[in-house]
Write a structure and sequence with these properties.
Helices cover 6% and strands 58% of the residues. The chain is mainly beta and 495 residues long.
Length: 495
């Protein structure tokens, strides 16, 4: 087993959304910090590696990969990941360190069931009961998908320990338009002690002709009047390049039946589509107007890596420096160091506060890693943080009195094993080989006359033709996640 240490900011596992353990919370908070920067089509893009003039392909499954087996915070917490023979993450178990007995104690377990396309169809969380030495079910979620792998329904249940049965407590139905955009999320819930699902909330999404999400409207169900009542609203403005240049957040005033503006953000982009500035405003009730609040400026190197973020606060007349983050990248595009500093306004100097150092194994890139990720969108985010195999991270706080770095105890270790083609079960889909690299997808093993369709994650068919040979190569418009459908077989592939 090969050892590595994880960079917390990069691990976007959805496991943290359920467990909420200390390690999971730490990971989630780090991820949220970066997702704010990368949101609204503002990607923290990595510098692409040099491309061969003659493209070669890496198979989505049928090649050797480095499989992430466990995440360990020494003498604090560890998480083990289990995969099936097709590389699907089917279980993870969280353990806590018992300093009294110097042993690991089981804490949380999550089991997944995946369909033939790798979509998660069921998720069950259980807690360890030390008094009975058994796992006791807690939560369960069942997922339903359409023919191209889009989630259409989610049903959440809780375990009734008295009756020993699952009791449904909420349901989400998802609606899509003809372009594959998710236009509505309708949530139902059971009232206390009830067994009937009733409308609770809904989210409506509006898109422009370019597929940009221009509005998100959240509403709550008024049980007395039997109508939907607005709750919050987010409006987005985009430029001709698809960059979000403005975001406005409002809440519904039920007394006056009007939308009340709460916050606004203005974004500036350079010619490469990189966000170079963000200015935030807050609604001032006494003044009944928007007041400037804060500003972030971003600096990029020649490879498109964000190397510095400067934060400012508005004092009423001028921008005052508040803090800065410095990011260091190696020649492979890996973020190897983050340093946070605070501006001392009294002495007019920067005070270094903390840093995180990382080391990568550049022999394995993102496409060589098998990671326990169960949300398609997270694969894109993880490609930034797992640009190559993470080997170590060490976080430190600056000790002003001694002028040295002090470890903050947040080092997290990663362990990998090799996952080979021999590990994959023989099944009906094993004869279909789907690979992607250098903006091309290779599909091999198609029967003559079978229809090959390639979709993007918005559900748009980019290619739809009957095959006249057993091997087809199709050009892709950009790097990303695509759905390849051959007959009744569906495969997701990442370029």
């Amino acid at each position: 087993m090969k050892k590595g240490i994880l960079l917390l900011v990069g691990f976007t596992l959805s496991v943290v959304l359920m467990a909420q353990s200390p390690l999971a919370k730490s990971i989630l908070e780090k991820v949220k910090k970066h997702q704010v920067i990368d949101s609204l089509k503002v990607k923290n893009e990595h510098h692409p590696l040099p491309k061969s003039s003659h493209p070669t392909f890496r198979s989505a499954c049928v090649v050797d990969k480095q499989k992430l087996d466990s995440v360990i915070r020494p003498e604090i917490e560890k998480i083990y990941f289990i995969y099936d023979a097709n590389g699907n993450n089917i279980q993870w178990i969280d353990y806590k360190w018992d300093s009294g007995t110097n042993t690991w104690m089981a804490f949380i377990k999550v089991d997944y069931i995946c369909d033939g396309s790798g979509n998660k169809t069921q998720e069950i969380e259980a807690r360890w009961h030390s008094d009975t030495n058994t796992w006791v079910p807690v939560y369960r979620t069942d997922y339903t998908y359409d023919g191209i792998g889009k989630e259409t329904q989610k049903i959440n249940s809780q375990w009734d320990m008295v009756a020993n049965i699952w009791v449904v407590h909420s349901k989400n139905d998802y609606t899509y338009d003809s372009n594959g955009n998710n236009t509505q999320d309708l949530c139902y819930s059971c009232d206390s002690g009830g067994s009937v699902l009733k409308p609770y909330s809904k989210t409506d999404y509006t898109f422009d002709s370019n597929g940009n999400n221009t509005q998100v409207l959240d509403s709550l169900w008024d049980t007395i009047n039997g109508i939907w009542v607005g709750n919050t609203k987010s409006d987005y403005t985009f430029d001709g390049n698809g960059n979000c240049t403005q975001y406005i957040y409002s809440t519904w005033d039920t007394t006056n039946s009007i939308w009340v503006l709460m916050t606004k953000y203005d974004y500036v982009f350079d010619s490469n589509g990189k966000k170079t500035q963000e200015i935030s405003y807050k609604w001032d009730l006494p003044g009944n107007s928007l007041e400037v609040y804060s500003k972030d400026d971003y600096t990029f190197d020649g490879n498109g890596n964000c190397i510095q973020k400067n934060s400012y606060e508005w004092d009423g007349t001028i921008w005052e420096e508040a803090s800065k983050d410095d990011y260091l990248f190696d020649s492979y595009g890996n973020n190897i160091q983050d340093t946070f500093s605070f501006w001392d306004r009294f002495n007019s100097l920067w005070l270094i506060m903390s840093k995180s150092d990382k080391v990568y194994n550049n022999a394995y890139s993102y496409s060589d890693l098998l990671l326990p990720i169960d949300e398609p969108a997270n694969e894109v985010n993880s490609a930034d943080f797992f640009h190559h195999e993470l080997l170590s991270t060490a976080s430190f706080d600056w000790d002003i009195s001694t002028g040295t770095w002090t470890p903050d105890g947040n080092a997290v270790q990663y362990y990998y094993t090799n996952f080979t083609a021999a590990d994959i079960k023989a099944n009906t889909a094993s004869t279909l080989i789907v690979s992607a690299q250098n903006n091309q997808v290779l599909v091999k093993g198609i029967a003559k006359g079978e229809t090959l369709t390639i979709y993007n994650l918005q559900g748009t068919a980019l290619y739809n033709q009957k095959a006249d040979t057993d091997t087809v190569v199709v050009s892709l418009p950009a790097h990303g996640v695509y759905v390849v459908k051959v007959g009744t077989r569906t495969v997701k592939v990442v370029d």
